[in-house]
Structure formats: C-alpha cells, structure tokens
Amino acid sequence: HPAFGAPLVGPDCIITSNAESVIADIGHPLADPARVRTRWPEHLSPGGEPVDLSHAPPPRSGHSRRAFLADFPGRNAFVSIANPVTGLRARIEWEAADFPYAWYWLEAGGRGGFPWYGDAYVLGIEPCTSYPTGGIGAIRALSGTQVVIPAGAEVTRSVAVSFGALA
C-alpha cells in the first residue's frame, strides 16, 4: 500500500500521471453509474461535484477521495507527487499490463470512523489489477475485472517507488 503524507503531501503538492481516465469508485452507494468515467485529473465525487485529483486539499479539510486511475498509454504507468515548497518528490512506476489501474485514495479528515477517525492526512496510490473497492464479490458483480490465476501457476510482478529532491 504505497501511501504518502506530510511534508510531501500538502496543498502545494502536484500529482501527475500518464493515466488518461479516472473511474469513480462504483462500489460507493452514491456513485452515479452514468458519470463514472472522466478524463485525468477530473473526478466526479459520489455526490457529483468535480474534483481535481492533481492537487491535495489541506489537512483536516473534511475531504475523502476514492477513485481509480486507468487507461495508461504504452507499456509503463506512473504517478508522481512533487512538492515545490518542500522540494520533495516521489514516483511510482509499473507495467500497465500487470496493473491496469491505480487506486487513488486520500484522507484529509473526511471519514470520522475507523480507521481514520477524522484525523488522517494521507494519499495512497496503489497499482492494482481490478476495481472497485469492496472485495472480490463487488469486483465480479460491478466490473468483471478480477484476475484469475490458474492453480499451480506462479506470477511475479513489480512496482518501483523512488524518492528524491526536486531538481
């Protein structure tokens, strides 16, 4: 679960990706099935408000985001987080065929219950094989994107995460 916090993540950070699409978490009961896919970085929240996923809200601002990045062109997929104020950067890279989606989740005081209790400030970028959230039953029922690995098969995949200073 690659997850990032302050001082990298903050209102000054810029999130970039070569994803071409954003898919709403269709497992959310308020998601509008007619408006689930948008162009990166625009996301339609379950309430229908447009959100720019390339910028993080301030801590304790009451925001919670769950979406999936998709349609990575070419062989490689990436998401990068850069903060020009702190001079920090992180980059996640993987083969798009191995993980055709990336779960983008952010907590900035938007969920009061377990496990965040309204106090977390974290951005997660998780390369994944399928969507939405809610377990394999939800994936089968809502998107059919589950991966089947035959009995006895061995599968190896990799994800690279790098950290550094902005040049």
| Oligomeric form | single chain
Radius of gyration: 16 Å
Report the strand count. 12
* Low-pLDDT regions: none
Total helices: the number is: 1
Give, in spatial order, the strands making up the sheet with the most strands: 1-11-10-7-3-4
Strand content: 35-45%
Helix content: under 10%
Main beta sheet: 6 strands, antiparallel
**What is the N-to-C succession of helices and strands?**
EEEEEEEEEEEHE
Mean of all residue-level pLDDT scores:
92
State the distance separating the first and last CA atoms: 27 Å
- Which secondary-structure class do the elements indicate? mainly beta
Describe the structure.
The chain is mainly beta and 167 residues long. It is built from one helix and twelve strands. The strands form three sheets. It has a six-stranded antiparallel β-sheet, with no helix packed on it. The longest helix is centred in the last third of the chain and has 7 residues. It is globular and about 50 Å long. The relative contact order is 0.23.
